[in-house]
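Holo model, acetamide. Inputs:
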Amino acid sequence: MIKLKSILSLSLVSAALLAASCGKTVPAEQSIDIVPLPASVTTSDGAFMLKASTPVVQTFGDESMAYAINFWNGVTGEIFGREAETIQAEAPLKRAINIICDESLGDEQYRLKVDASGIEIAAKQANGVFYAFQTLRQMLPVAAFEADAARVAIPACEINDKPYFAYRGFMFDMGRHIFSVDEVKDMIDILAMHKVNRLHWHLTEDQGWRIEIKKYPRLTEVGSIRKSSPIGRNEGQDGKPYGGFFTQDQVRDVVQYAAERFITVIPEIEIPGHSVAALAAYPDLGCTGEQYEVATRWGVDDRVICPGKELAFTFWEDVLTEVMELFPSEYIHIGGDECPKTMWKKCPACQKRIRQEGLKNEAELQAYVTKRVEKFLNDHGRKIIGWDEILEGGVTQSATVMAWRGPGYGIQAAKLGNHVIMSPNSNCYLDYYQTRDVENEPLAIGGYLPLETSYAFDPYKQLNEEERKFILGVQGNLWTEYIDNYEYAQYMTLPRMSAIAEVGWSYDRKDYDSFLKRMGHLTQLFDHYGYTYCKHGFNTEEAAAASDKK
Ligand code: ACM
Ligand code: ZN
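Output:
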């Protein structure tokens, strides 16, 4: 009979043998499939064997280089169970990932070279290094994350890459439904994976005010809670209170988390429309002073802030002062969309303002608001972005126009010499249906915007060379009237945001068939991270039907 001690020692021996043998070599991927598409990829024979012991060698960089390296540490930690060592050195080392400075490269640009002796990442600054690491993660076989890997083969290659557009954005609406700090951070990780560099955070709405403002506590005490939400498309009311907001500490946390992923958070404070929640908190801001409730229906509301009153400007300036303290972004988005003029037409204070300022009509009154708020922000070193309605009634040269009602508004703004961010609902609205088979989809706002249509977007269409210079970039917009949970938010975002990210990063080289093939690899990564994404765009019958109907 074998004694207990022998059993124990036998099992210890077999455990040791197992540990020595089960650390696998994960073979390299067959091809290098990166989304968004790099500017150039050249492959050669051989591979580098990435191991837990492969250090990152940092030969230059400011404190933000740590953010890029931290990202890679997270990846290697996941694969090998421990983070790579970081070595500060004057010169590159063998069998390492060497980060070297190349001053000739542009902002966000990088060069990634892999051969059997090591990996070299060249960039001018940390954001380029971060994007090289994002590319490197996509080059890893997904099996590397799932196997008990000891070595992961990375194919020898040289990748030269840089973005086409400087602004690559995503808008996330918190007003209609709010998402947790962790969910917003998860979305930031998804954006970073796509080399998106702006999160436009829509924080105020008729149906809810979502950011703590110390000087106006009722904005969140009262304005962050609605007593009920619509059922269906305003077909009924659920009768359940709904609310939430971000404290200033939470906002700082999100802004920092995004900064560590080279994403600037641009806050949006809606001025002067979409403000019923603010009016519910501070009724004096309205034309009539009436006490309203936070809106409980979706749509455009006639009840807007009264620019006839100086109080309104004091309010906006106070709010923006706190907002500027929280967000270091160059741009502040001041809304400006869907502001009905019904109340202003009947309001003595608004009409007096129109007369006193020599304005022609209510459209010019909104332009007066935009210009005055812009001047305040400019005086504090910031610039404004506004939805394309800011073109009505005259716009200053310095305002950036976010085209949403169609590319035509972006074209109009570019012809006027204004900077433009293209996010037309024809191609970039992520709340629209992704299939015609709507019966089998969760309820959405409507429309039909399949993956191919997002991909086909051409932000330069109908613009001459001179006008093209005014297009800063593109943005996908996720409005959340019908999106009340984060899984659904991911489903609507992916993979259309992958397509929009590729329009932004790879405009001059995009190719839909190649995109679909490369998405085959990226969706494996989505699966690995547990992201929910829509598969209709990968269904060839549906894609063919979408393309026939165009
Ligand atoms: C918008 O969709 N109202 C900008
Ligand atoms: Zn008024």
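The pocket of zinc ion (ligand 2) is lined by residues 287, 306, 308, 344, 347, 349-350 (CB under 6 Å). The first strand starts at residue 24 and ends at 26.
Archived with the compound record.
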